[in-house]
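Risk mitigation, structural track. In case the binding assays with cytidine-5'-diphosphate fail to produce interpretable data, a predicted complex structure has been prepared as a fallback.
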Amino acid sequence: MIIAVDGPAASGKGTLAAGLARHYGLPHLDTGLLYRAVGLAVADKVDGPAFESAAIAAAQALDAGHLDDLAALTAAETGVLASKVAVIAEVRAALFDFQRTFATGPDGAVLDGRDIGTRICPDADVKLFIQADSKARMERRARQLEARGVAVDRYALFHQIEERDARDMLNPHGGFYQADDAHLLDTTQLGIEAALRAAIAIVEKAMALKAGGQKPS
Ligand SMILES: Nc1ncnc2c1ncn2[C@@H]1O[C@H](COP(=O)(O)OP(=O)(O)O)[C@@H](O)[C@H]1O
Ligand SMILES: Nc1ccn([C@@H]2O[C@H](COP(=O)(O)OP(=O)(O)O)[C@@H](O)[C@H]2O)c(=O)n1
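Fallback model:
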Protein backbone atom coordinates (compact mmCIF):
# COMPACT_ATOMS: atom_id res chain seq x y z
CA MET A 1 0.00 0.00 0.00
CA ILE A 2 1.25 3.47 -0.87
CA ILE A 3 0.05 6.35 1.33
CA ALA A 4 0.74 9.93 0.21
CA VAL A 5 0.74 12.65 2.89
CA ASP A 6 1.03 16.27 1.76
CA GLY A 7 0.60 19.60 3.48
CA PRO A 8 2.19 22.94 4.34
CA ALA A 9 5.05 23.61 6.75
CA ALA A 10 4.62 22.23 10.27
CA SER A 11 1.09 20.96 9.59
CA GLY A 12 2.05 17.68 11.28
CA LYS A 13 2.35 15.64 8.09
CA GLY A 14 5.67 14.06 9.11
CA THR A 15 4.30 13.02 12.50
CA LEU A 16 1.21 11.54 10.87
CA ALA A 17 3.20 9.82 8.14
CA ALA A 18 5.51 8.26 10.75
CA GLY A 19 2.47 7.15 12.80
CA LEU A 20 0.77 5.62 9.76
CA ALA A 21 4.00 3.85 8.80
CA ARG A 22 4.26 2.37 12.31
CA HIS A 23 0.61 1.36 12.30
CA TYR A 24 0.75 -0.40 8.94
CA GLY A 25 4.35 -1.64 9.17
CA LEU A 26 5.46 0.35 6.12
CA PRO A 27 8.70 2.23 5.43
CA HIS A 28 8.45 6.03 5.70
CA LEU A 29 10.22 8.72 3.68
CA ASP A 30 10.15 12.38 4.72
CA THR A 31 10.78 13.84 1.25
CA GLY A 32 11.37 17.33 2.69
CA LEU A 33 14.70 16.00 3.96
CA LEU A 34 15.87 15.52 0.36
CA TYR A 35 15.21 19.17 -0.49
CA ARG A 36 16.72 20.23 2.83
CA ALA A 37 19.89 18.22 2.08
CA VAL A 38 20.22 19.92 -1.31
CA GLY A 39 19.61 23.32 0.33
CA LEU A 40 22.26 22.62 2.93
CA ALA A 41 24.76 21.64 0.24
CA VAL A 42 24.45 25.09 -1.36
CA ALA A 43 24.15 27.12 1.84
CA ASP A 44 27.36 29.01 1.06
CA LYS A 45 26.21 30.12 -2.42
CA VAL A 46 24.32 33.31 -3.17
CA ASP A 47 21.17 33.30 -5.34
CA GLY A 48 21.83 33.26 -9.08
CA PRO A 49 23.13 30.91 -11.79
CA ALA A 50 25.94 29.53 -9.58
CA PHE A 51 23.38 28.68 -6.88
CA GLU A 52 21.19 26.91 -9.44
CA SER A 53 23.92 24.83 -11.01
CA ALA A 54 25.35 23.87 -7.59
CA ALA A 55 21.85 22.85 -6.43
CA ILE A 56 21.30 20.70 -9.52
CA ALA A 57 24.70 19.00 -9.04
CA ALA A 58 23.94 18.39 -5.35
CA ALA A 59 20.53 16.90 -6.17
CA GLN A 60 22.09 14.61 -8.79
CA ALA A 61 24.71 13.43 -6.29
CA LEU A 62 22.31 12.96 -3.37
CA ASP A 63 22.15 9.64 -1.54
CA ALA A 64 20.90 8.40 1.83
CA GLY A 65 24.26 9.32 3.42
CA HIS A 66 23.33 13.00 3.08
CA LEU A 67 20.27 12.60 5.31
CA ASP A 68 21.99 11.89 8.64
CA ASP A 69 22.68 15.33 10.12
CA LEU A 70 19.14 15.88 11.40
CA ALA A 71 20.01 18.92 13.54
CA ALA A 72 21.30 20.85 10.51
CA LEU A 73 18.68 19.47 8.13
CA THR A 74 15.72 20.42 10.30
CA ALA A 75 16.90 23.95 11.17
CA ALA A 76 14.43 26.66 10.13
CA GLU A 77 17.02 28.33 7.86
CA THR A 78 17.55 25.04 6.04
CA GLY A 79 13.80 24.97 5.36
CA VAL A 80 14.09 28.31 3.59
CA LEU A 81 17.06 27.07 1.52
CA ALA A 82 15.08 23.92 0.70
CA SER A 83 12.17 25.96 -0.65
CA LYS A 84 14.62 27.93 -2.83
CA VAL A 85 16.17 24.85 -4.43
CA ALA A 86 12.69 23.30 -4.74
CA VAL A 87 11.68 25.82 -7.43
CA ILE A 88 14.43 24.53 -9.77
CA ALA A 89 12.84 22.02 -12.17
CA GLU A 90 16.10 20.06 -12.63
CA VAL A 91 16.43 19.62 -8.86
CA ARG A 92 12.93 18.16 -8.65
CA ALA A 93 13.65 15.90 -11.62
CA ALA A 94 16.89 14.66 -10.03
CA LEU A 95 15.06 13.76 -6.80
CA PHE A 96 12.17 12.03 -8.55
CA ASP A 97 13.71 8.55 -8.98
CA PHE A 98 14.88 8.32 -5.35
CA GLN A 99 11.32 8.99 -4.15
CA ARG A 100 9.66 6.79 -6.74
CA THR A 101 12.00 3.85 -6.02
CA PHE A 102 11.28 4.21 -2.30
CA ALA A 103 7.51 4.31 -2.88
CA THR A 104 7.42 1.27 -5.11
CA GLY A 105 9.27 -1.11 -2.79
CA PRO A 106 7.79 -4.57 -2.11
CA ASP A 107 5.34 -3.46 0.62
CA GLY A 108 4.71 0.08 -0.59
CA ALA A 109 5.48 3.02 1.71
CA VAL A 110 4.29 6.20 3.35
CA LEU A 111 5.80 9.37 1.88
CA ASP A 112 5.21 12.89 3.12
CA GLY A 113 5.95 16.18 1.36
CA ARG A 114 4.23 18.63 -0.97
CA ASP A 115 3.75 16.80 -4.28
CA ILE A 116 3.44 13.15 -3.27
CA GLY A 117 -0.21 12.81 -4.24
CA THR A 118 0.11 14.97 -7.35
CA ARG A 119 3.52 14.14 -8.91
CA ILE A 120 5.50 11.44 -7.11
CA CYS A 121 2.68 8.95 -6.44
CA PRO A 122 -0.40 10.03 -8.37
CA ASP A 123 -1.25 6.31 -8.17
CA ALA A 124 -1.12 6.18 -4.33
CA ASP A 125 -3.76 3.97 -2.70
CA VAL A 126 -4.66 6.69 -0.23
CA LYS A 127 -3.85 10.42 -0.29
CA LEU A 128 -4.08 12.72 2.69
CA PHE A 129 -3.78 16.49 2.56
CA ILE A 130 -3.00 17.85 6.01
CA GLN A 131 -3.97 21.38 7.03
CA ALA A 132 -3.74 23.43 10.21
CA ASP A 133 -4.05 27.19 10.58
CA SER A 134 -0.86 29.24 10.31
CA LYS A 135 -0.71 30.26 13.97
CA ALA A 136 -1.08 26.66 15.16
CA ARG A 137 1.63 25.58 12.72
CA MET A 138 3.98 28.32 13.85
CA GLU A 139 3.42 27.41 17.52
CA ARG A 140 4.06 23.72 16.84
CA ARG A 141 7.29 24.48 14.99
CA ALA A 142 8.36 26.92 17.72
CA ARG A 143 7.88 24.30 20.44
CA GLN A 144 9.64 21.67 18.33
CA LEU A 145 12.68 23.94 17.94
CA GLU A 146 12.62 25.03 21.60
CA ALA A 147 12.54 21.40 22.71
CA ARG A 148 15.90 21.11 20.94
CA GLY A 149 17.27 24.13 22.78
CA VAL A 150 16.92 26.53 19.83
CA ALA A 151 15.86 30.09 20.74
CA VAL A 152 12.80 31.12 18.72
CA ASP A 153 11.53 34.55 17.66
CA ARG A 154 7.85 33.69 17.06
CA TYR A 155 7.19 36.79 14.97
CA ALA A 156 10.10 35.99 12.63
CA LEU A 157 9.17 32.30 12.50
CA PHE A 158 5.55 33.11 11.56
CA HIS A 159 6.70 35.27 8.65
CA GLN A 160 9.31 32.74 7.59
CA ILE A 161 6.66 29.99 7.43
CA GLU A 162 4.24 32.24 5.52
CA GLU A 163 6.98 33.20 3.05
CA ARG A 164 7.91 29.54 2.53
CA ASP A 165 4.25 28.50 2.10
CA ALA A 166 3.78 31.23 -0.51
CA ARG A 167 6.91 30.18 -2.42
CA ASP A 168 5.77 26.54 -2.32
CA MET A 169 2.23 27.32 -3.47
CA LEU A 170 3.44 29.51 -6.33
CA ASN A 171 6.20 27.11 -7.36
CA PRO A 172 5.32 26.33 -11.00
CA HIS A 173 7.15 22.98 -10.78
CA GLY A 174 6.01 22.16 -7.23
CA GLY A 175 2.75 20.24 -7.65
CA PHE A 176 1.73 21.56 -4.24
CA TYR A 177 -2.04 21.40 -4.18
CA GLN A 178 -4.65 19.03 -2.88
CA ALA A 179 -5.11 16.25 -5.44
CA ASP A 180 -8.74 15.67 -6.53
CA ASP A 181 -8.76 12.30 -4.81
CA ALA A 182 -6.96 13.43 -1.62
CA HIS A 183 -8.72 13.50 1.73
CA LEU A 184 -8.43 16.77 3.64
CA LEU A 185 -7.56 16.46 7.32
CA ASP A 186 -7.48 19.68 9.35
CA THR A 187 -5.53 19.06 12.56
CA THR A 188 -5.84 22.58 14.04
CA GLN A 189 -8.09 21.31 16.84
CA LEU A 190 -6.64 17.81 17.06
CA GLY A 191 -3.79 16.56 19.22
CA ILE A 192 -1.25 14.12 17.78
CA GLU A 193 -3.11 10.97 18.87
CA ALA A 194 -6.51 12.23 17.70
CA ALA A 195 -5.02 13.30 14.36
CA LEU A 196 -3.47 9.85 13.89
CA ARG A 197 -6.77 8.13 14.74
CA ALA A 198 -8.52 10.33 12.17
CA ALA A 199 -5.88 9.55 9.55
CA ILE A 200 -6.13 5.80 10.18
CA ALA A 201 -9.94 6.02 9.90
CA ILE A 202 -9.54 7.72 6.49
CA VAL A 203 -7.11 5.04 5.29
CA GLU A 204 -9.36 2.22 6.50
CA LYS A 205 -12.41 3.67 4.79
CA ALA A 206 -10.52 4.32 1.55
CA MET A 207 -9.09 0.81 1.48
CA ALA A 208 -12.50 -0.73 2.23
CA LEU A 209 -14.04 1.26 -0.65
CA LYS A 210 -11.18 0.21 -2.91
CA ALA A 211 -11.66 -3.45 -1.98
CA GLY A 212 -15.34 -3.04 -2.80
CA GLY A 213 -14.42 -1.55 -6.17
CA GLN A 214 -15.84 1.90 -5.35
CA LYS A 215 -14.20 5.28 -5.92
CA PRO A 216 -13.57 7.49 -2.85
CA SER A 217 -16.22 10.17 -2.27
N1 LIG B 1 -1.88 17.41 15.79
C1 LIG B 1 -0.84 17.95 16.43
N2 LIG B 1 -1.02 18.65 17.57
C2 LIG B 1 0.01 19.23 18.20
N3 LIG B 1 1.30 19.14 17.80
C3 LIG B 1 1.55 18.45 16.68
C4 LIG B 1 0.50 17.83 15.94
N4 LIG B 1 1.06 17.21 14.88
C5 LIG B 1 2.38 17.44 14.94
N5 LIG B 1 2.68 18.17 16.04
C6 LIG B 1 4.00 18.64 16.44
O1 LIG B 1 4.29 19.76 15.60
C7 LIG B 1 5.66 19.75 15.19
C8 LIG B 1 5.72 19.75 13.65
O2 LIG B 1 5.21 18.51 13.21
P1 LIG B 1 5.81 17.77 11.95
O3 LIG B 1 5.14 16.45 11.84
O4 LIG B 1 7.30 17.81 11.98
O5 LIG B 1 5.27 18.75 10.77
P2 LIG B 1 5.59 18.75 9.25
O6 LIG B 1 6.17 17.42 8.87
O7 LIG B 1 4.28 19.03 8.58
O8 LIG B 1 6.55 19.88 9.07
C9 LIG B 1 6.29 18.54 15.85
O9 LIG B 1 6.93 18.92 17.05
C10 LIG B 1 5.11 17.63 16.18
O10 LIG B 1 5.33 16.84 17.32
N1 LIG C 1 7.91 16.84 -1.69
C1 LIG C 1 8.46 18.01 -1.33
C2 LIG C 1 8.98 18.18 -0.04
C3 LIG C 1 9.55 19.39 0.29
N2 LIG C 1 9.62 20.36 -0.61
C4 LIG C 1 10.31 21.63 -0.33
O1 LIG C 1 11.17 21.50 0.78
C5 LIG C 1 10.85 22.45 1.81
C6 LIG C 1 11.06 21.79 3.16
O2 LIG C 1 10.11 20.75 3.26
P1 LIG C 1 9.76 20.05 4.64
O3 LIG C 1 8.64 19.11 4.39
O4 LIG C 1 10.99 19.49 5.24
O5 LIG C 1 9.29 21.29 5.53
P2 LIG C 1 8.32 21.30 6.77
O6 LIG C 1 6.92 21.19 6.23
O7 LIG C 1 8.68 20.10 7.61
O8 LIG C 1 8.59 22.59 7.45
C7 LIG C 1 9.41 22.87 1.52
O9 LIG C 1 9.11 24.19 2.00
C8 LIG C 1 9.35 22.78 -0.01
O10 LIG C 1 9.86 23.94 -0.61
C9 LIG C 1 9.09 20.19 -1.89
O11 LIG C 1 9.13 21.11 -2.70
N3 LIG C 1 8.52 19.00 -2.22
